[in-house]
Amino acid sequence: MDFTLSKSQKEIKKAAWEFARGKFDKEMIIEQSKAQTFPLDILEKAGELGFIGIHFDEAYEGGGLGLFEDILVSETFCRKDSTLGAALKFSAYAAECILRFGDKALKETFIPAIAGGQRISTGAFLEPDPGYDLSAVKTTAEKDPDGWIINGVKSHVPLGDQADIHVVLCATDPTVEPRTKGMSMLLVESDREGVFTENRTEKLGGRMVPFAPVRFENVRVPPTHLIGSEGMGYKQLERFLIENRIQIAAMALGTAQGAFDRALAYIKEREQFGKKLAQFQITRHKIADMANRIEGARYLTYYAATCFDQGKASNQMASMAKLTATETAMAVTDESVQMLGGYGYMTEYEVEHFYRDAKHAEIFQGTPGVQKDIIADEVIGKLKP
Q1: Cβ–Cβ < 8 Å for 343, 288
Q2: Strand partners, 197
Q3: DSSP letters spanning 259-287
Q4: What is the C-alpha separation between 50 and 55, in angstroms, rounded?
Q5: Which are the contacts of 113, defined by CB distance < 8 A and separation ≥ 6?
Q6: β-strands 121-124, 165-171 pairing
Q7: CB atoms < 10 A from the CB of 228, how many?
């Protein structure tokens, strides 16, 4: 399959790079990362230029393009800076659930502001006890004449204390077996009575995307806030995770490329024993290995996005892309820190936070072990008893 970018795709990458180069200030990123704060002015500008909702329908103020174009932006932003790049793209986290499954009225009400960078969306899926076992969701939504009443606690919600819109996975019929058939998605605005955010959690990487628990106490939403069909929430989430894992793969790919860029620039300038580091064979071979891994991850990520845009969404392909890209990011950022030596450990040289952000991408939406289980299930298939 040919992944040569079209003229318009090249222009998208160029525009994304020019935007990042002009807006991503290193000192600002360092300070806001320490504080786990988010540059809302840059988000709004990115939205105005179409970078946030590039893959949303034009009818809802999106760019009308595909996931492929979206991952080009993610890759480019994260190449310039992995922390701010991911934060900008996470500002629309789970908006795809509204876009893909919500009715026209719901999309008209909420998607344009998300695409424009004026409102932040997030997904409230995980819970404190079951963790990644989404089949054990305890948050409930009971139907009454005026809509739904939601009760429960969600954990590890990206931008949970800053989001304006939460896509919440709830048990709407706990009597159904398997339990996944009794789950639905509901949209909840953060300013509704009974929505409480807890203290955000400190974490290693992705610090401009702080996680925070969100508690729902008798939160009432109208019947129109049901996303898709009742009882289809778990299947909708599975579909969203395919798309989002490809997006995470692109962020990891950009993270790897950004660290590689800095390591390459360093070894071409730094001298030891009267020679540039780039002249030593061991360094040259490391650079070759890093470049090889990045290019392999790029092709697999691009292929997964292309399959998605062609209507061939695949759990296996999305997990392969995420596993490969995040493992590449971990390996490349680690080697970049090593190449810079003591400088690699220093914040001002940037590769240290690329390394931390690579770990964030590796764990989010399922660890490598989770991805391998998904791939193995697809490859092996059902075994005869």
Answers
A1: no
A2: 214
A3: HHHHHHHHHHH-EETTEEGGGSHHHHHHH
A4: 9
A5: 119, 164
A6: parallel
A7: 19
Token code pair at residue 69: 């174009």
Residue 193 CB neighbour total at 10 angstroms: 8
- Select from 115, 138, 153 the last residue of a domain: 115
Domain coverage including residue 68: 7-115
Per-residue DSSP letter, 381:
-
Neighbours of 267 (CB within 10 A): 20
Any idea what the CATH number is for the domain that residue 338 is in? 1.20.140.10
pLDDT in tens, 22-79: 999 999 999 999 999 889 999 999 999 999 999 999 999 999 999 999 999 999 999 9
Tokens of 30: 């360092």
* Residues 143, 172 contacting (CB under 8 angstroms): yes
Tally of residues, the chain = 385
Is 96 inside any structural domain? yes
Give Cβ neighbours of residue 349 (< 8 Å, ≥ 6 apart).
262, 340, 343
Q: pLDDT tens digits for 337-367? A: 999 988 888 888 899 999 999 999 999 999 9
Give residue 166's pLDDT band: very low, low, confident or very high (50, 70, 90). very high
Residues pairing with 189 in the sheet: 165
In the chain, the largest separation of any two C-alpha atoms, in whole Å, equals 80
Pick the last residue of a domain from 75, 93, 115.
115
The pTM score is 0.95
Beta bridge partners of 157: 212
**What CATH number does residue 206 fall under?**
2.40.110.10
Tens digit of each residue's pLDDT (9 = 90 or more) over 305-341: 999 999 998 999 999 999 999 999 999 999 999 999 8
Contacts of 315 (CB under 8 A, 6+ apart): 238, 242, 374, 377, 378
Dist CA 154 CA 160 (whole Å): 9
User: Comparing C-alpha atoms, which of 261, 94, 258, 89 is closest to residue 187?
Assistant: 94
